[in-house]
Amino acid sequence: MLTDRVLTGILRSGALLSALIMLLILCFLLLESWPALTGLPVAGFLTDPSWHPLESAYNLMPMLSATLLASIGAITLAVPLGIASALFIVFFAPSHLASLYKRLIELLAGIPSVVFGFWGLTVLVPLISEWQPPGASLLAAVLVLTLMILPMIAITAYTALAAVPDELLQNAAALGLSRWGTIAGVVLPAARAGITAGIILAAARALGETMAVLMVAGNVVQHPESLFDPVRTLAANIALEMAYAMGDHRSVLFVSGLLLMLLVMALSAMAGLLEKHRHV
Asked: What single string gives the DSSP state of each residue in 7-69?
């Protein structure tokens, strides 16, 4: 039919445009990073004494470790909470409570990141400081990121769970499976692809989050030895220094951006490999 052909053409054009935009962003980052990648020893990004651009020291590892630790910590907390929220909405809550709870999660998803940062700076950081100074720390960044990515995981998990065919649920009931048996043995495996996609999107947001983390993490370039140490992430470093960076300093900041994009691409590739392995 003509309508099908038109719709197929529109969808293909949209997919092609998305891929082209991603390719252009990657090329732009490579172009801006090229002076640092060719003019500076790449090993210096790992082995320089510290991050001191004025002294031509560009060690990115402390900020990379802070970025990964904050993201992994947030994902570790947000994934079980998000999936539990989705299961509660779909299978356990009464319809009126499920609708209200879903609206609250959607409202949480729409809160600007700077508001999370304000809340973390004025409420969370002082609370942590009473426990273990200085308060602005890796722990504060993990908790704020958890709140920020939790709605994304919950909403995508809800969508995936709600899309499970009713026939599967009816067959499970006919076999005498309990509610938990149905959820663990039928529903979650059927919704795995959608839940995984949500986790990947949330992880990508956690890796690239800037303003909220900048406000609560302490912005000290160091390898954290505990959750209470102040840290600086790659994205926060770019936001702090790009306005005045010049020459090699500017190029290395673009290397940081390229590294973040490569991390997100690696996450996406890993999700694809896991899904492919599951169907083998």
From this structure: HHHHHHHHHHHHHHHHHHHHHHHHHHHHHHHHHS-TTHHHHSSSEEGGGTEE--HHHHHHHHH
- Please give the CATH number for the structural domain made up of 40-279: 1.10.3720.10
Listed in sequence order, the residues at least 6 apart from 208 whose beta carbon sits closer than 8 Å to its beta carbon are: 235, 260, 264
CA 272/CA 278 separation, integer angstroms: 10
Identity of residue 8: T
Do 140 and 224 contact (CB within 8 A), yes or no?
Answer: no
Q: Using one digit for the tens of pLDDT, what is the confidence trace for 103-143?
A: 999 898 888 999 999 999 999 999 999 998 888 999 999 99
94 three-class SS:
coil
List the structure tokens of 67. 């970025």
pTM above 0.85, yes or no: yes
Domain residue ranges in the chain: 40-279
* Pair 139, 159: CB distance under 8 Å: no
Q: Which residues of 169-196 are buried (b: 16+ CB within 10 A; e: fewer)?
A: beebeeeebeeeebbeebbbebbeebbb
| Per-residue exposure over 12-42, b if at least 16 CB sit within 10 Å of its own CB, e if not | eeeeeeeeeeeeeeeeebeebbebbeeebee
pLDDT per residue as tens digits for the range 153-193: 999 999 999 888 888 878 877 877 778 888 888 888 888 88
- Tokens coding 10: 């529109």
Biggest alpha carbon–alpha carbon distance for the chain: 71
